[in-house]
From TrEMBL:
It comes from Neopipo cinnamomea. The gene is Nf1. It comes from the Eukaryota. This is NF1 protein.
Length: 170
């Protein structure tokens, strides 16, 4: 049994209850349904009207990602207390950092937010890289103010820097 203490089980129960509430569907980008199970278990075989293009995709706000990441981090840390040799957080941080510093208009902003939320330490070099990304986003915005990807990248770097700043040495 991975999560054996009563305290950990309570955290898991509360989290499951919290994420089962309709008001939290928006955090996962599925607010236009009455039940998350409708989306999660819908199949094109049973419901012929469903196809990847037949519903309007909702945008996934970076602030929602921040909230979801912090909730998942809380769950992970609760379970890690019961597993002394657990490296889940280190692996997650490593993956988030890899994608945060690699240009990809879809993944990079999300990875920056996750990296900012889950990091327990940060180097000046990492902060410098994030500031370079911010600079490139601002430069791109100046060239064309309607550039949505640049605006998202700027928002992501600000969220990441806000989360990471307290971890820096004075």
């Amino acid at each position: 049994n991975l999560c054996s203490t009563e305290e950990t089980k309570q955290v898991l129960r509360l989290s499951l209850t919290e994420f089962s509430l309709p008001k939290f569907y928006l955090l996962f980008g599925i607010s236009k349904v009455k039940s998350a199970a409708v989306i999660a278990f819908r199949s094109s075989y049973r419901d012929r009207s469903f196809s990847p293009g037949s519903y309007e995709r909702e945008t996934f706000a970076l602030t929602s990602l921040e909230t979801v990441t912090e909730a998942l981090l809380e769950i992970m840390e609760a379970c890690m207390r019961d597993i002394p040799t657990c490296k889940w957080l280190d692996q997650w941080t490593e993956l988030a950092q890899k994608f945060a510093f690699q240009y990809n208009p879809s993944l990079q902003p999300r990875a920056l937010v996750v990296f900012g939320c889950i990091s327990k330490r940060v180097s000046h070099g990492q902060i410098k890289q994030i500031i370079r990304i911010l600079s490139k986003g601002l430069e791109s915005c100046l060239k064309g103010p309607d550039n949505y990807n640049s605006q998202v990248l700027i928002e992501a770097t600000v969220i990441a820097l806000t989360k990471l700043q307290p971890l820096l040495n004075k």
